[in-house]
Amino acid sequence: MTLVEAVDVTVSVAGRTLVRDAGLMIGAGEVLGIVGPNGAGKSTVLRALAGLIPIAEGQVRLAGRPLRDFSARSMARQLAFVPQDHTLTAEFTVLDLVLIGRYAHRRRWSRAHDDDERIARAALARVGVAHLADRLVPSLSGGERQLVHLARALAQDTPVVLLDEPTAALDLGHQLQVFALLRGLAADGRGIGVVLHDLNHAARFCDRLAVLAEGRVCAVGDPARILTADLLAQVYGIDALVRYDPAVDAPQITPLHLVPAPSGSSIPAPSRYKALSMHRSPTILATSLLGAAALLLTVTGCTGTASAQKASPASARSSATTSYPLTLNVPGQSQPLTLAKQPKRIAVLSPDASIAVDELVGTSRIVAATDAAKNTTLNPRAADFSAVPHTITDDTNPNPEQVLSWKPDLVVVTARHTGEQDASSQLSAAGAPVLSLTNNWGTVQDVTDNLTLLGTALNAQAEAASLVKQINDGVAAATAKTSRISSSPSVLVLSNQAPMPFINASDVITSELITDAGGTNAATAAGAHATMPVNPEQVVKASPDYIMLVDVLGKGQSSFQSILSNPAVANLPAVKDGHVKLFQAQDVYGVAGTEIVTGIQQIMSWIHPELN
Amino acid sequence: MTTLVRRARLGHPRVATMRPSAWVSLIVLGLVLIVVALVAICLGPVLIPFSDTCRIVLGFFGVHSGEASSSFALVVRDIRLPRVLLAVLAGGGLGVAGAVMQAFFRNPLADPGVTGVSSGAAVGAVAVLASGVDVLGPWTLPAAAFAGALLVMGLVQGIGLVARDRTPVTLLLVGVALNAFFGAAVGALVSNASDSQTVRGAVFWLQGDLNTASWAQVKLVLVPVLVCSTAALLVTRELNALLLGDEQAQSIGVNVSLLRGGLLILTAVLVGSIVSVTGVIGFVGLVVPHVVRLVLGADHRLLIPAAALLGASFLTAADTVARVVVEPVSWQTGVVTALAGSPVFLVLVLRSRRVGRAA
């Protein structure tokens, strides 16, 4: 009775035909050996029979029905497959591994049945490795592992068993053990298909052989009849002695020497290699494409222009004012800054510095500014910057080469982040005059110091002095008012730095604006020592009198909803009493000029309404 | 399950010795999770007496009626409980996702981070953040993260199919390449965002953080994590079979392409929904299944539930450290998982190698 058969099967992988028009059948109670040289398609035929690779033409029939009529599960009850190498390296016990073979016989919800365990143990015993049941699979030798996988296939309890070189890893004793097992399985009435390399074993233990060469079945039948010297010369290219050996009751082959390959016949091995390399190439191609694309993306983040050149030292020609050339000592900078003439092409790499320069001398001399300086939410004078020709998109990480390409005669930067510090030292090294502000505009004193320094550098001392006076007068007026009041309400500052609200610690100028307005920054009480994403519990812990929302993104109060709507926060007196107010970032956050006074006044009229 | 891990008989070398039984392990891990979660609920910037915390928690679960309006009750119920639950769900989900992906890639090094699935989710999320697109309201970000995660898993599978090479190493390398690609894409999106404030927010978000935990977020991840974890528990035998290789799994009766497709969606939903809420929290998906495997073995029937429980405990503990212990220095949850996870991981791996050699 035919259990499984291949009818004119053709298998192609990546456009290459590995097996052509193969016809084979395995009957009940027989062992069919599949033999042939390397690359003849033996394993491919076996996999086609097992339904593991798609078939281009022809058909495989299992128990008289086409394979596509079977589900994976119903097929696994008909046919078991043992591959040549076993990838399992996980720490399973041998018994658990064999139990995996019972998969198709168990329903999803059933426990590991006693029956299953009995069958698994019987399978191990039949293969002769019952003693290994509790061992861990990775601790087995290669031979033991092969036997355990055989036991797993046996536990599957199928009419058809297909094996790919089951004796490849085994010593002679184990080899005989496996063949005895295969004969025993055939005696049960099962059909066995086995790929073998050793022709002598194949001739001795198989009922029939199928000889493959270059993807075609070139002979099928009784080993004694088909294993001839002619066939071996044709298929393997060897001159061999074939004789009947009564000790094993089978033909035995002694290879003598190679015969010259007949002309016109392609050699299978190289074509196999070619097929391999072809089917691998798309992965390699895809991977390298991805690598290239990833590289490209990284590079576009910092597009450089090749035309950059060193900023040339200014000519000795004296300018209109007498204060140049100017040597300026910049706090935190080891070398004094020398300006040959009044700067007319200023690149301002930081938004706060942009605001200050604009207040001092306007924007007509600015050649480049940050996008934040052009953002109306952050800068009340953003309109002034619309005519500035160049934009720095990433103000935490300015690109020195790009800056040089604009040929600035002064670069102003707040060296707050590493990226700005690096850019500043690279620009200095390249010969560009860099005014690097090392204080971070975090206090009113910082702001007035910076304005004075910039005023000197830009020949705008008078403007600087006037601005500093305005600021100091404004602060003094505010503190004069608040000094008469004993109360100092606590104010918690939250800002919407997407996507989560941040708590603003005392390291930003907003904190001093609150102090000058007669309040206290509640960040310290909340346990926040740096500006960072806020945990709602910090707000509860601080329990501030007022909650100040700074709208950095211009998205309004709704962007703070996630924290304000938290019931624990909503229950705070400040929220219940409506002491929550949204402030524009341009008034209270990152301010670097006279907005300081506006900011203080806004906060004061909010937290000290009695002074209005 | 009782026959799952057998105690070894004496005298057999290299057997599964000293492995605790499955139920005992799961009960111990469950108790650990309960203790960790309770400690996490008790700790926070606001000092709340332990007895009050217990009363409030019990009240929340309807056992004891505590004073509902007190501010302590609000802190515990509306800040700590959702945060701890979010950590439990995200940690458990990441543990399951890691275990499933390691079977999917048949490689113990696979996890949502290494294979680019987290990066894919991050690209989706950051694209939404940077562009300000708001199509589905609160679901915009999760949907984009899910789409990104699914895209990466689909690409891995697709490239494997086209190349006709689905060996574990190839799949993992494809994942690594995609991770590099999408990591760069996130970088490009962040550095080209229209304003630098968005950039700073996105950077914080990318490191993983549970500060914004709320009941709404708990609800958002609850269903995906529970459904996907249950689904993973239902296919543990198929995951075991997958360890044998696709061919072997197919030949013992597993519908491998259906399984792989299902796992693809499962991991994408898990990682996408978690990343959209917590940002990219690394290391949980890698370390947790690995530690479980070292102690309890590779059987997914035990590995999946154990990884869920241990992942939940690990992330909850890491988040508690992030918000309490290291004050005044502030660390983010994702930073703590990596800082704590890597040395533990190293010690365990090296110790297991030594034991392996000695045996």
Notes on the protein architecture:
The complex is a heterodimer of chains A (about 600) and B (about 350). Helices cover about 35% and strands about 20% of the residues of chain A. By secondary structure, chain A is an alpha/beta fold. Residues about 265-320 of chain A have low confidence and may be disordered. In chain A, a hairpin with a 2-residue loop joins strand 1 (about 1-15) and strand 2. In chain A, strands 6-7-8-3-9-10 form a six-stranded mixed sheet, with helices on both faces. In chain A, strands 20, 21, 22, 23, 24 and 25 form a six-stranded mixed sheet that branches. The longest helix of chain A has about 35 residues, at about 270-300. Chain A is elongated and about 120 Å long. Chain A contains 22 helices and 25 strands. With about 350 residues, chain B is mostly helical. Helix content of chain B is about 70%, strand content about 0%. The two termini of chain B are about 25 Å apart. Chains A and B meet through helix 2, strand 6, helix 3, helix 10 and strand 23 of A and helix 3, helix 5, helix 6, helix 7 and helix 9 of B.
Q: Tell me the total number of β-strands of chain A.
A: 25
Report the β-strand fraction of chain B as a percent range.
under 5%
Which runs of chain B of at least 5 residues are low in confidence (pLDDT < 50)?
Answer: 1-18
- Please count the helical segments of chain B: 14
Mean pLDDT of chain B: 81
Distance between the termini of chain A: 105 Å
Q: Which percent band covers the strand fraction of chain A?
A: 15-25%
Main-sheet strand order of chain A equals: 6-7-8-3-9-10
Structural class of chain A: alpha/beta
Helix/sheet category of chain B: mainly alpha
Radius of gyration of chain A, rounded?
42 Å
Gyration radius over CA of chain B: 21 Å
